[in-house]
Amino acid sequence: MTPAPRRTHQAAPPREDVLAAVMATVAERGLDGLTMAGLGREVGMSSGHLLYYFRTKDELLLQTLEWSENRLGAERRALLARPGSVRERLDAYIALYLPAGHRDPHWTLWLEVWGRSQNADDDARARQAAIEGAWHRDLVALLAEGVSRGAFRPVDADRSAARLRALLDGFSVHVTVGIPGTGREQALAQAAEFLDETLEPGPRPGDATSVTTAS
Question: Which residues contact 150 (CB under 8 A, 6 or more apart)?
Answer without folding.
Answer: 201
